Amino acid sequence: MKASRFFVSTLKEAPADAEVVSHQLMTRAGMIKKLGAGIYTYMPMGLRVIRKVEAIVREEMNRAGAVECAMPVVQPSELWQETGRFEKMGPELLRIQDRHARDFVIQPTSEEVVTDIARQELRSYKQLPKNLYQIQTKFRDERRPRFGLMRGREFTMKDAYSFDRDQAGAKASYQAMAEAYRRIFDRFGLTYRAVAADSGAIGGDLSEEFQVIAATGEDAIVYCPTSDYAANMEKAESAPPAGPRPAASQPRTLTPTPGKATCADVAGLLGVPLARTVKSLVLATDELNEAGEAVGVRVWLLLLRGDHDMNEIKVSKVPGLDNGFRFATVPEIEEHFGAKPGYLGPLDLKKPVRIVADREVAVMADWICGANQEGHHITGVNWGRDLPEPEAVADLRNVVAGDPSPDGRGELTIERGIEVGHVFYLGTKYSKAMNATFLGEDGKPAHFEMGCYGIGVTRLPAAAIEQNHDERGIIWPDAIAPFTVVLCPIGMDRSQEVKAAAEKLYEELLAAGVDVLLDDRGERPGAMFADWELIGVPHRVVLSDRGLKEGQVEYQHRRDSSATKVGAGDILAYVKERLTA
Amino acid sequence: MKASRFFVSTLKEAPADAEVVSHQLMTRAGMIKKLGAGIYTYMPMGLRVIRKVEAIVREEMNRAGAVECAMPVVQPSELWQETGRFEKMGPELLRIQDRHARDFVIQPTSEEVVTDIARQELRSYKQLPKNLYQIQTKFRDERRPRFGLMRGREFTMKDAYSFDRDQAGAKASYQAMAEAYRRIFDRFGLTYRAVAADSGAIGGDLSEEFQVIAATGEDAIVYCPTSDYAANMEKAESAPPAGPRPAASQPRTLTPTPGKATCADVAGLLGVPLARTVKSLVLATDELNEAGEAVGVRVWLLLLRGDHDMNEIKVSKVPGLDNGFRFATVPEIEEHFGAKPGYLGPLDLKKPVRIVADREVAVMADWICGANQEGHHITGVNWGRDLPEPEAVADLRNVVAGDPSPDGRGELTIERGIEVGHVFYLGTKYSKAMNATFLGEDGKPAHFEMGCYGIGVTRLPAAAIEQNHDERGIIWPDAIAPFTVVLCPIGMDRSQEVKAAAEKLYEELLAAGVDVLLDDRGERPGAMFADWELIGVPHRVVLSDRGLKEGQVEYQHRRDSSATKVGAGDILAYVKERLTA
User: Fold this and answer.
1) Cβ B94–A91 below 8 Å, yes or no?
2) What is the rounded CA–CA span in Å between residue A94 and residue B95?
3) What is the CA radius of gyration of chain B?
């Protein structure tokens, strides 16, 4: 490609609403252009990246035996009503009425449509397994779209859906997809981790997220550097406590802590480690009658160590809390504890509550908690002596760095990641809701065992940038760079020699199958270099009159701090050697 | 590709709502699957065709210097309000409100968005010309979607938009696109015509449709077999009448024609050629005051030869009718003619009307028209004698087969076509509406001269089928076939020799870059052949035990009536020789 025929458009300043670096750089590099909140035009420079992402995804999906189709963007509501998602999904689901006032949605995903295809087309176990995928426009009407392509409303997703005759088959399909995803992310040239994720109501271990590692990532991911263990924060199990509970050694003491309503404040005041304090979290569950009306409230007290954070997913698996819970209201708290939030604890309750202790709290002795009395805590609290042994003990907390790995093979480390892929075993959730069956080998109808597998195609470039940039701009991996090599001739309009050498090298690189751009715009060297450093083309060759007189050109990788002089006759081989994709 | 890994799904019967052969065959061949009225999933077999169409379009657009981008499917209404199209477009424009009750549309085309990009990005004449294109999902909420992909609601269109500094530049951009379209349609391997089309209010000749010739086409297209002349019916000019008006030879005679209200009936009753009769069409224009309120009605009488049909586009260019017209109401007709429709004519009017005669009518003598009296016509009518010479004479009619070509180089022929492409000079319509300017060489802002260029990517396969099918199914041109070659091994599960030969040929064809499918499903030969004839793969090779024992396989092109025996060692070369793309 020659720059004069292409669409190069760079900006010195990022727009005011661009909060993250990928949004700033993609806008400044002319890759995306905002049309509305969370809605972007993919400009030529950005679309080249997206097309390369798509091509890698498509190749590996095909290699893994998945078959491409394209489901409609605008989908009639009927199928969405079959699964209940038309009602259940919130305003994120963009609903439309057509000219005949019929309801439609813009697809955020396509489980309903693909399950409908399966129940019509896949009639026999002999046709299984099948995996259908699409690379298609999606829409989610985010309440607060932001961060450019990272959390847009309109986006492109690759979504694949597998159909199997039984769980063993589904597991094999899942594993094949997980392997394909590893190949895909390897080929992108990004640092990533595949981490175990929560699989929700379905249970089992068949849910993994593919996280691109970046300091700016929204997600905390947990891994063990000395073993294979990796999970997202929601999923990461904490290892059981190391030892048994020590014996009580302190008396129970009511201690004034005026104005100290947090564990950290109390620990500071008393001069004890935060890990000696226990925090009280008060939840509530509504008791419903058969008609679904609230007929009563049950209040729960969760006890966690002061230095630990609650993990909502883990809490949602505690028996009794697994049908939904909420934080208790202040009146509910006052009714049961006789105190306002800030000084709550499990002793001297006004009305009974259900107590669930985190596993670490259950093995603590001589701990500190709120006294259910404004401005007071109790120190020296001990299970069995000051209050009964906990009714329920569970893993309720987020892991922290330094926790032992659940596989016992090291300590956990935490880093930030951006989720760009997810593989998920669905079981029969959708096939049962839509009564999607096939005839089994035994002649009886059976529900499909399904899996779903997504990659955020337009999110991926943003994640790549969060991971790979410097103060001058983007640094693309070769595989998804808009152009792999840029040729920057200096004074091409003045020097016939520079022009001829640039055109020759351009043709040679093209002939070698290299995605090369020749910058023939006639920009000054400084502006030209700044443009391509901002855009992030990984390999640059500069041709100048002076250099060519000495038989030399300059090569510089985007990560190099300075240029390397290379013989003009050797540059083709030199560049080709440096390409990684 | 091996069939067992792919998604082959054929039907014996077409769905009841499939009225046209392409809809029937695409459904039966498992290429599309209806999700709702005018909304289809592109199934794997159909998507392969669409992807090949896209690839050819993309290659040629790039070659012509256009640059690919992707504009959003969901577009905020603001830009659409700038051009007035948000209000002006009827219910075909699908309107949406998001969660904040802001208005959006789903793009039917993207003139507004691309013009907005241009006015922000293209600041100087130095950046021109530019041509941006996208291959993207579109939606038009057709009142009566039908004919499968031929007139769907959701579809894929390639739309390109050129920006130039002046009309000469715009004309050059237009011509480059028209040439690119010829290359594209040549490569598709379809019989097509590029025909002149009406360019609406803009005028000039810069509008051409690309019509795939098919007996079932919706459009009538006109061409001269002995010259280059080709136009659609709307546009095709009729040549001026051959000679001067003959002298009057008959007396004006009131003739009873009871119950004969059409020209054909009258000609039949009187035993004269239909071309001797004149039909009366009564139009009306509303006179508006400055506030746009109707303050009066003007009634028009159009006179056409009884064997000619009115051409609305031509009528809409008659001075006085060029701001819109409608058919007159019965009360308006009675008020001016004193008679009901069926016996109307230009003589003995109750109130004056504006008369416009088609050029052919203006040179008629002794003609027959309605008498403005129930059950009566007048014969022997003559201009200048029975009524004044016509106030206005114009080309008002559709051409008919046998008319002289307007270029004077032969006679016109009419055939049917399906419009799949359109190149159009837009002028400054959108750039003025949106005040999209660039700085000209003279330092002054100027409006972009624009063109737009569309190809119906998902309509093209349907048009290809309308042109290329037989009673057994589809016959794809090589370039856009879902697979170019299908290998049909007979008894592959029983015969090791057949299996080995089929696998070997499959690998050889793949290595030669041929898009080959090996049917390893184990179907019986009859069912297998029927499937691939329905699907329309152009080249078929059958491998059987018996044939291989004689060292032979069978080759058959989809258009061949029987198979040809080819030596097993020669088949690779034989097939490659027969490929056209």
Assistant:
1) no
2) 12
3) 30
Q: Which of B5, B30, B143 sits opposite A99 (nearest CB)?
A: B143
Distance (Å) from the alpha carbon of A451 to chain B's nearest alpha carbon: 18
In sequence order, what are the beta bridge partners of B427? B450
User: Which chain A positions have a beta carbon within 8 Å of B67's beta carbon?
Assistant: 5-7, 44
B389: left (phi over 0), alpha (psi -120 to 50) or beta: beta
With contacts defined as CB-CB under 8 Å, which chain A residues touch B34? none
Tokens 């208005």 sit on residue: B103
Domain A3-72+109-208+418-465: which CATH number of 3.30.43.10, 3.40.50.2300, 3.30.930.10, 3.40.50.720: 3.30.930.10
Note whether B169 and B103 are within 8 A (CB).
Answer: no
Of A470-474, B240-244, B453-457, the range with the lowest mean pLDDT is B240-244
Q: Residue B514: what residue type? A: V
- Cβ atoms of residues A386 and A348 within 8 Å: no
The rounded distance, in Å, linking the Cα atoms of B270 and B369 is 12
- Determine contact, residues A333/A282, Cβ cutoff 8 Å: yes
Query: Which structure tokens are listed for A506?
Result: 């351009």
Cβ B96–A94 below 8 Å, yes or no? yes
Arch. (CATH architecture) of A483-578: 3-Layer(aba) Sandwich (3.40)
Of A39, A68, A96, the CB nearest to B94: A96
Q: What is the CATH number of domain A253-394?
A: 3.90.960.10
b or e along B1-12 (b: 16 or more beta carbons within 10 Å of the residue's beta carbon)? bebeebbbbbee
Range 24-53 of A in CB contact (< 8 A) with B: 30, 33, 35-36, 39-44, 47, 50
Instruction: Give the span between the Cα atoms of A377 and A345, in whole angstroms.
Output: 8
CB contact under 8 A, B67 and A6: yes
Query: A74 vs B139: CB contact, 8 Å cut-off?
Result: yes
Interhelix angle for B44-63 vs B459-467, to 10°? 100
What phi and psi values does residue B506 have, to the nearest 5 degrees?
-60, -50
Residue with token string 């891994």: A223
| C-beta of residue B303 within 8 angstroms of C-beta of residue B357 | yes
Nearest Cα to B283, choosing from B231, B215, B227, B354? B354
Instruction: Find the CB nearest B141 among A9, A99, A113.
Output: A99
A95 backbone dihedrals φ, ψ, rounded to 5°: -100, 145
Could you tell me if A25 and A150 are in contact, meaning their C-beta atoms sit under 8 angstroms apart?
no
- Give the integer Cα–Cα distance in Å for B56 and A566: 39
Task: Label residues B229-267 b or e (16+ Cβ within 10 Å = b).
Answer: bbbbbbbbbbbebeeeeeebeeeeeeeebeebbebeebb
* Peptide bond connecting A129 to the previous residue in cis, omega within 30 degrees of 0: yes
DSSP symbols for A206-255: -EEEEEEE-TT-SEEEEE-TTSS-EEETTTPPPPPPSSPPPPP-S--EEE
Beta strands B516-518 and A95-97, pairing class? unpaired
B21-237+414-465: CATH architecture: 2-Layer Sandwich (3.30)
Q: Whole-model pTM?
A: 0.90
* CATH 3.90.960.10 domain position(s) in chain B: 253-394
Decide if B337 touches A, using CB distance below 8 A: no
pLDDT of residue B204: 61
**Could you tell me which residue, A528 or A286, shows the higher pLDDT?**
A528
Could you give the ipTM of this predicted complex?
0.89
Contact A214, A416 (CB under 8 A): yes
- Strand B354-358 to A539-543 pairing: unpaired
Mean pLDDT of B354-364: 96
Amino acid B296 reads G
Report the residue from A36, A69, A94 with minimal CB separation from B76.
A36
Tokens coding B495: 């015969």
Give the tens place of pLDDT for each residue, A306-342: 999 999 999 999 999 988 899 999 999 999 999 989 8
For residue A30, which residues of chain B lie inside 8 Å, CB to CB?
121
